[in-house]
Design brief:
- The chain is an alpha/beta fold.
- It is built from 21 helices and 24 strands.
């Protein structure tokens, strides 16, 4: 049977729950060359700016399905509750592409759509919808299994966003049609530069540091040792004698960095925009520090590099305060910062000698924190900006890769992953409610107001410290109480629930994570949340949960690692990347906690 005749024999049905990505799949099929069965009566709007690709008579499928004959050889969108009314007698056959998406993401998108249509008050409660949807999906699977004239292919929405090319190839194989998969993928990803690069190496998930915060993760990367040796546990610490904030910087890093090691072997390094490198320290090469960098001159070594950056109007970071003005203002600032960042990276890469080059793009972090919901909601005003930013990033990566050359070892990594925030969780509030934390004031402004009876406190994002006597100025917890408090705290944290869901995935004791000269400064407990719960150490909250302008939060298990080499190792941690780089430089260094992957 030819592909053309097979196309004429089947009706391709794109289905799924409302807001599961069916319109996106219809557009992919259209761009791939598949004819659509749609009438365009329902026009694009704020909720679906690229169109709905619907056929009006589908709504009455329960009453009349006789017209389905004329949809042969085309793709039609039919929402999943109406699948049960397909015409199954006669010689009609169907290939169903069923979009699956996380129920919570569907509910969030539906809620926004309802609010825009001013139907929010009429919505069924989320928990009721969640249970109904789960039951419905089971019914669909059971129904499909009973019909031999239906072929069924489930497609995960998150996978489409992550790897549209692979999904497009899978759809092409399922339909057995000559579809243009490159055009299909561009609906989601745009230019496939990175997709081509990763074929020449190993792309895999990677676990970040604990806690999964940039200062700790990047320092673990740049030293190849655990925080118990390099000494950076977070962006902020307390002065034990005064409870005032202090902000660790590059001078607090107790271990050698990759460029320190490289420099001892007469190798030049260029390090641009890497967090936790401020102020710039002397090295054999060039360094322009990243977040948190306060002054460009102090952030840059040597003087000549500073003069260049100053002359091009270099921006050390995105002005996230723009988010208070508007998301469009923030988007504009992200783009401006990214453009000058690219210019600097390419200039130093092309015009200076180097053996090790590290260029960091932190604009993605700001994009994810503030605009994550725009990725997941096609109708969001900033959705197109989000997708376009990644197209530009994709092209930039290809430009850097081409400049380095295929033979040069090339690594891409992130310091953590990201996911949508369900709720922020204020752990110091929880400690107060449990009787672990007490302040001298009813509305404390900082830890300078901590009471001597306080037993435990939290520093961002999820670091628990026992208020030990002799360790802290007002500490009152005796050493004999230490283990009892930790064990009780661990059990209670693992039992913490919000809206019937567990919040804490795992609780680590300090000795399970850290070792080294800085061990005594380590948090006594560190917790990892279930995806969607953003843990915070604020002291002035009046409730357990809340929301802010941030819509995306850090995750530990889905950081990314790529190297343009075939490697056998898996279960990769960010601590392994530094040793890998030093090994690729031809340097034998045995001081690492991590392992070389090559």
């Amino acid at each position: 049977m030819s592909k053309l005749s097979m196309q004429n024999d089947f009706i391709v049905v794109v289905s799924g729950l409302p807001r599961s990505g069916t319109s996106m799949m219809m557009q992919m099929l259209k761009e791939g060359g598949m004819p659509l069965f749609a009438d365009d009566i329902r026009k694009p709007d704020e909720d679906n700016p690229k169109g709905y690709y619907e056929y009006e008579r589908v709504k009455d499928l329960e009453k009349d399905n006789s017209w389905l004959e004329i949809a042969r050889g085309k793709a039609i969108k039919i929402v999943s509750p109406l699948l049960f009314h397909l015409k199954l007698d006669g010689d009609l056959r169907y290939k169903i592409i069923f979009m699956r998406r996380e129920i919570d993401e569907i509910l969030a998108s539906q809620k926004k759509m309802a609010e825009r249509l001013k139907r929010g008050e009429d919505r069924i409660p989320d928990e009721v919808l969640r249970q109904n949807y789960l039951k419905h999906l089971e019914e669909v699977e059971d129904w499909v299994s009973k019909h031999s004239d239906i072929e069924f292919q489930a497609v995960d929405y998150a996978l489409v966003v992550k790897d549209a090319s692979a999904v497009a190839e899978g759809i092409k194989e399922f339909l057995n049609l000559e579809l243009n998969t490159e055009s299909m993928a561009k609906v989601v990803t745009g230019s496939p530069n990175l997709a081509g690069i990763v074929k020449a190496g190993t792309l895999t998930d990677m676990t970040a540091s604990i806690p999964e915060i940039s200062s700790t993760s990047w320092t673990t990367f740049m030293t190849g040792v655990n925080p118990g040796r390099h000494g950076i546990y977070g962006f902020m610490e307390l002065q034990k004698d005064s409870y005032k904030w202090r902000f660790p910087n590059s001078l607090d890093i107790k271990s050698d960095t990759l460029w320190d090691i490289a420099g001892r072997h007469n190798k030049k390094s260029i390090v641009l925009n890497l967090p936790s490198t401020y102020p710039a320290r002397q090295l054999n090469g060039i360094l322009a520090a990243g977040f948190v960098a306060l002054d460009l001159k102090k952030a840059t070594y040597p003087e000549s590099a500073y003069e260049y950056l100053k002359n091009i109007g270099y921006r050390m970071d995105v002005d996230t305060q723009k988010a208070k003005e508007s998301l469009s203002a923030l988007s504009e600032d992200i783009q401006k910062t990214f453009e000058v960042r690219k210019k600097a990276i390419l200039y130093f890469m092309d015009n200076h000698e180097w053996d090790l080059f590290i260029g960091t793009v932190t604009e993605t972090d700001r994009l994810h924190h503030y605009l994550w919901e725009s990725l997941e909601d096609n109708a969001h005003p900033q959705h197109n900006f989000f997708m376009d930013f990644y197209r530009k990033l994709d092209s930039f990566i290809a430009e850097v890769y081409q400049g380095a050359g295929d033979d040069t070892p090339f690594i891409i990594l992130s310091d953590h992953g990201f996911a949508a925030i369900k709720k922020e969780v204020y752990l110091n509030y929880w400690l107060k409610e449990k009787g672990y934390l007490k302040f001298k004031k009813a509305e404390p402004q900082s830890f300078e107001d901590i009471h001597e009876d306080a037993k435990v406190f939290v520093l961002d994002p999820s670091r628990f410290y026992i208020h030990l006597k002799g360790k802290y100025k007002s500490g009152g917890v005796e050493n004999i109480e230490y283990e009892g408090i930790r064990n009780k705290l661990r059990d209670e944290l693992l039992s913490l629930e919000i809206d019937g869901e567990k919040v804490i995935k795992k609780v680590f004791l300090k000795e399970e994570l850290y070792s080294g000269a800085c061990y005594e400064d380590a948090p006594d407990l560190v917790v990892l949340p279930h995806t969607g719960y953003d843990l915070k150490g604020a002291v002035n909250k009046s409730s357990l949960t809340g929301r802010s302008q941030l819509t995306g939060g850090h995750t530990r298990d889905n950081a990314v690692f790529f190297i343009n080499r075939d490697i056998k190792e898996r279960d990769i941690n960010i601590i392994d990347v530094g040793p890998t780089i030093i090994s690729l430089l031809g340097i034998n260094e045995e001081s690492f906690d991590g392992r070389s992957l090559v």
